[in-house]
Amino acid sequence: MNLNSIPAFQDNYIWVLSEDDGRCLIVDPGEAAPVLRAISDNHWQPEAILLTHHHNDHVGGVKELLRHFPDIVVYGPEETRDKGVTHLVTQGDRLTILGAKFSVFSSPGHTLGHLCYFSFPYLFCGDTMFSGGCGRLFEGTADQMYESFCKINALPEDTIICCAHEYTLTNIKFALSILPEDRELNEYYLKVKELRAKNQKTLPTTLKNERRINIFLRTQDPDLAAVINQETKLLQPNARFAWLRSKKDNF
Hints:
Elements: E1 2-8, E2 12-18, E3 23-27, H1 33-42, E4 45-50, H2 56-59, H3 62-68, E5 73-76, E6 87-88, E7 94-97, E8 100-106, E9 115-119, E10 122-124, E11 129-130, E12 133-134, H4 142-153, E13 160-162, H5 168-178, H6 183-197, E14 205-206, H7 207-213, H8 222-229, H9 237-249
Parallel strand pairs: 3-4, 4-5, 5-6, 10-13
Antiparallel strand pairs: 1-2, 2-3, 7-8, 8-9, 9-10, 11-12, 13-14
Helix pairs in contact: 4-9, 5-6
């Protein structure tokens, strides 16, 4: 399968998996117009849509796409019931789409019913993980988001992580505010800064890369623990995760 990304709004990416014969799967179409253009330009034949959560910038284009392609199967969590879903899915479900097998797992934090979809090597994680960061806690708790990150971190290191937003530069700036001397972060910051200066994408990323540069995956890092201990002694990684998320909220 071929992985494609469609820019939407200011910083969203709508992901599309396509086969050489034109059949395709669309993930989180927040608006229909750019998807319809891409379908026309590439002669795609959409067969299914995956929804990770209920926010409008991820589901806003579904009903318009269904008007054009009424046979599309739309998978999503309970919280997307009124967003055009035809098949509700939940933790532990298995789907076969375009001949590929997808596993569904819950990833609460950003929203309570947030789901991720994994078909090696692709992970569609919505607003759970971003390159260098994690989603805001609009409905869930830091502990829930930490557990969601643990699920993602248990996947193979060559997993291709398809995040929904281009937040990488800001996330790395935040990480450097915590660990300003970190070599990996400084090197990655220069790379990302150069890409964004050319208006090029920083996504998708890989889990191997995120383990190096995503500070929210490094809650057992001794250097990070030392920084946190200057303010408060937090022995558990989930507590450090919550501390980081709180700091990021005010960054």
